[in-house]
Amino acid sequence: MKKEHETEEEQKVGRVKLPEENQVIGIIEMRLGGNKMQVHCLDGKVRKCRVPGRLKRRLWLRPNDVVIVELWELDKSRGDIIFKYKPAQVEWLKEHGYLEKEKLEF
């Protein structure tokens, strides 16, 4: 059953998770070993982030993957990677202005 306001693209992509407060979208620059990674966040900062133990085996990450980073309360220069976008979701983010092509190039 198709709702009137949903387009075919939105049905294909599904619901795209957007960052909440204390979260930011980022792009992985490089792996630092173990569960640590360097992430270029869209607020202009480069952060050292980790994958929490509960997601370690389920979240396979590589450089240039688009992720959501949840910032630490006490140290805003670090964070936890809590979600990885799929390629169709990345395209949706680009089309709707959440990701700019200039920011994706390093």
Structural features, described:
With 106 residues, the protein is an alpha+beta fold. Helix content is 18%, strand content 33%. The chain is built from 3 helices and 5 strands; from the N terminus they run αβββββαα. The chain is globular. The N terminus is likely disordered.
Proportion of beta-strand residues: 25-35%
Low confidence ranges: 1-11
The main sheet comes to: 5 strands, mixed, barrel
CA gyration radius, whole angstroms: 15 Å
Helix content: 10-25%
Q: How many H/I helical runs?
A: 3
List keywords for this structure.
106 residues; 5-stranded mixed β-barrel; 3 helices; alpha+beta; globular
Give a concise summary:
With 106 residues, the protein is an alpha+beta fold. It is built from 3 helices and 5 strands; from the N terminus they run H-E-E-E-E-E-H-H. A hairpin with a 4-residue loop joins strand 2 and strand 3.
